[in-house]
Amino acid sequence: MGSLCDRLVRPLLAAAMGLAACLGPIGCETLRSIAAxxxxxxxxxxxxxxxxLSLESASVEVGVRVANPYAVPLPxxxxxxxxxxxxxxxxxxxxxAQGTIPAKASRDFAxxxxxxxxxxxxxxxxxxxxxMVPYAVDSVISLxxxxxxxVEVPLKKEGELPVPAPPTVSVDSIExxxxxxxxxxATVNLRLGNPNAFGVDVxxxxxxxxxxxxEVARTDLAQAATIAPGRDAVLRLxxxxxxxxxxxxxxxxxxxxxxxxxxxxxxxxxxxFGPLTLPLSGGGDTRFTR
Length: 290
Hints:
The protein contains 4 helices and 15 strands.
């Protein structure tokens, strides 16, 4: 039925255009009125989400829905977008031609983009790692219509972008359970600080620990902890090794009240924006308890 109507309407529209040319300004005004009342395509940004996150960049996806009010397929000529924060634009892109929107229907599009934090910080002043950065997406959908020609539909949506920072790490104390030249076992009280404006759920920690300049352990542990924004949490981690392999020098250090330490490794966490792997690096002096 739709195609039959199109075949009937198009000749009438062409005749009307010819008649308008004959009637002069009055006919042109009539056509302008017809065009103004004609249905127009609509579009909306349906989602704006972070799909991947690291210390260097964030992957975002802009979801767009375009509705076609016509009885014929509607070609999408181009989709352009720009991401900005405040008055500064830090990323632009274009998706190019995207096929057609079915007649009397709508179609969803996903526009992926990668935001490099180095570029973001260069374009927008005052951004620090750990912050949530407000930003806006401005997009223009270009559509080729038969009745109205090229139609551009502007869109805008606002959101927040996380710029993650690595955790702070320190060893509060080491509680010795057994300490002999052949075997040492202890609990390491490892303090992690979350400098981010969003909470993290710790799922795994892989780290190496050195005491008095000698590495005594390198392990990978499943560990559950929730750290609120700007807060600390202490992980109680088991430690077991043989001082014999490092010699009498290390054993004498362990028999004291404390020692210098170094921690390195990585932390696996879940954020409101998906999983994230963060580096661990810290050092200082810790105390021993028995």
